[in-house]
Amino acid sequence: MRNFPSRVDQLSELPAPRYAQVKQMITQLIMSGTWSAHERIPSESDLAQELGLSRLTINRALSELTADGVLVRTQGVGTFVAERKGQSALFAVNNIADEISERDHRHHCKVILLCEEWAGADQVLALNMREGQRVFHSLIVHYENDMAVQLEDRYVNAAVAPDYLRQDFVMQTPYAYLSRVAPLTEGEHVVEAILAEEEDCRLLQIKRDEACLLIRRRTWSGHQSVTSARLILPGSRHRLEGRFGS
Questions:
Q1: Which CATH number covers residue 39?
Q2: Are the CB atoms for 223 and 160 separated by under 8 Å?
Q3: Is residue 194 included in any domain, yes or no?
Q4: What is the DSSP string of 195-239?
Q5: What is the pTM for the complete model shown?
Q6: DSSP-derived secondary structure letter, 40
Q7: What percent of the chain has pLDDT over 90?
Q8: Taking CA atoms, which of 45, 69, 75, 181 is between 20 and 30 Å from 130?
């Protein structure tokens, strides 16, 4: 079996249960690119024989990796390496271009809308403005390699970022620009599970019945509200992670 330890004694150096050692080894093979996305991996019986372990141990390792989204198991067909999902920090506001680059993938985007509008009731509430004040509105689809992974529908306080409409958001993200002109001091996230509207599905190139994550994000710089954004992420292509303590 290629690129895999031949006997269980090669696992014993690791201070962890056998199934956990198998999980770690498989994860390392995937992270190193030895086993790539959609590639079929050896069967339970082949792994058990090669490593000198019981099928029960192998089954637990593969089952937990499947539950973690690392593998995909298809009855009667086999076990495959899952397409790696993008992930974002739940409690942080990050640049999506940087997140994608950190996965050694390519970020690019398509600007659907970039215009000036007058604040309506939603913007008045979200941005703490008066009705009729100027706001800038952008609608951008972000891609990881050639797959749409986020629809960013953003309103910006024109008084805080007056040159917003003059920016080339194909070359830099709104996050990168706003971080320079109005450094973030506070943010708010509200996360929901939704079925996206038909037009949003078209832009994201997903089916109407695909579950999505909706993140409603507001940000402030000092005492000034800066943006109110609606971010839609296809559930099959993304996950959020958070870590906290008491």
A1: 1.10.10.10
A2: no
A3: yes
A4: E--HHHHHHHT--TT-EEEEEEEEEEETTEEEEEEEEEEEGGGEE
A5: 0.64
A6: B
A7: 45
A8: 181
